[in-house]
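assembly run, all chains below
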Amino acid sequence: MFRKDLIKPDGRRLHLYSRKPISDGIIATNPPHDPVKPNPHMRWHPLRGEWVIYASHRQDRTFLPPKEYSPLAVTKSMDFPTELPAGDYEMAVFENLFPALSLGAEGMVQSSVETQAGVGVCEVVVFTQDPDASLGALSVEEVKLVLQVLADRTKEIGANPQVKYVLPFENRGVEVGVTLHHPHGQIYSYPFVPPVPAKMLEMQLKHFEKNGRTLLQDFTATEVNDGRRIIANEKTAKAYLPACARYAYETWVVPDRPVAWLYDLNEDELMDLAKTLKTVLMKFDKMWDRPFPYLLTLFQAPTDGAAHPAAHAHFQIFPAYRTQGKLKYLAGTELGGGIFVNDSYPEVKAAELQAVEVKF
Amino acid sequence: MFRKDLIKPDGRRLHLYSRKPISDGIIATNPPHDPVKPNPHMRWHPLRGEWVIYASHRQDRTFLPPKEYSPLAVTKSMDFPTELPAGDYEMAVFENLFPALSLGAEGMVQSSVETQAGVGVCEVVVFTQDPDASLGALSVEEVKLVLQVLADRTKEIGANPQVKYVLPFENRGVEVGVTLHHPHGQIYSYPFVPPVPAKMLEMQLKHFEKNGRTLLQDFTATEVNDGRRIIANEKTAKAYLPACARYAYETWVVPDRPVAWLYDLNEDELMDLAKTLKTVLMKFDKMWDRPFPYLLTLFQAPTDGAAHPAAHAHFQIFPAYRTQGKLKYLAGTELGGGIFVNDSYPEVKAAELQAVEVKF
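ok done. output:
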């Protein structure tokens, strides 16, 4: 993997990635914009025991621009610069112009609840220069590069002592609120471990201390043994609908080896993980012959300097539809209670996906 | 409040409520339907440490029927019976034909994760016979009746030793997935305390043990003192956007007196609470001159037989829009991390609502 670091005219960092050496002379660009001075702060929600991020500058963010004005398109003319310069790179990562959290946040806010500066890094990860591609449509080598880039970003962002957790994700489809269609993901990083990964870490730690293996090692072994919900089965990585799926088509993509962070996988393991992920995403899109909207999240261990032998890095994918044409809405029981109702069995949904044949 | 209990032809319970005596001779009805044998089960999600409910019979539930076939319309002819009989009642509550949880659940399910029968009660609460009304458009006396009905249902459902938590809520608007337009809410009840109320109870208990007052007593006093986010201020009840709002227009409606369950409020307090709730809902609808979609949840104490002096019953309302025409989508940080990003300040949004004048 080759990487080139540049600085945009407006001061934001840009990282170009490729499987081949990247030419010198690429000039970083950004779209013209009014000055953005992100100064997010956080307020403590005493009833839920969690932080809420306030980022009012995000109101002005780009909202479903027509394709000809996509800020993620490659710059064709310096008269109309975008976030992506022209050049022979494959992927680009840059600091979000409208970050929810910012290393420069000062957070001097008076409030009746406890407040803190909204310190963190938010990056945009552009998967390809092709605006009509998608993560699942990339070649398996390109998907592997995506994994390597996410690993590299986690390592670099997580090395900042202010950052305790790095969360890469992809929101795909207008159904889940995507505002830019060019294939891309995002990385949020937080000055604390957010509640969802914190809870999962707690559960994993209990399991590890009791059994000496990670929870996902045992869970995956059980899924492989059962077989009914397996979607992809590579030598060192598996994909399956978990027996406890909350979303109808919820799928987990899990490397066999329990590494805390993606960057601890070797080349062969990354390739297997790329194959399983690509298999899942291709099946999603082929099943109804249309782009399948989802939220994809990469869960890794905190970047707090500690070792986390109980944490097992993996992807969880939450598709938006519960059946063709019917979205899953989160309502009273999910948002009010925190309990999901799934009106289908993962065994049945897995069979639907198993029946979809994909080749690459 | 007057109440009449009936049994539908298909065996489900129907409770009619009114401020005046209800005539004898009302015949309970239900729409014709294939036999429904709800047998939901729950599976343990070991990674998140929570239950997931599986209710596959819910796939067949009514989905946005044309208005002339609404199952919540009042029965006009016994040739076309609906869920609501004709009669001189004001509100009706009945067992959901497609319940997510059922007292009859047997739950004999083999799975690689721990399972349990999906035991509980799910009811539909029809606020009015008028299909074109809304909760906020009801008279304040009718809103008070709604509160009394929710209190009565909580007491009755919660008296079942299998039920540990009763969660009344209203999903309003197609934006939040509403499948029937007739004004109604729902009640879910669970054989355990769900994660969100459990966490809030934990936080409230810590506060109560330290301060001798409920968290919401102190929080509300601070909001009243600050004043910037107050939406309604009655003698014994308040409504405000909390300083830590996660949703742009998130509003809490809180009785001053810290009762654990709504049924512990007296008549005057219920009337004040009805006034604050109605004020909020009327402002929502008038602000953009259109029905304002939201999720409204009533949080009370568990119904586990214990006293809960730290629990302070109140409503939380989560509106779907973050600004006019722009929905708030829950995506990577909210669903993956459990951390909300609010791109507006509750002080600003409260000022918008304060500027809307309503009278009743």
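The mean pLDDT of chain A is 95.

The first strand of chain A starts at residue 2 and ends at 7.

not gonna interpret more than that til we talk
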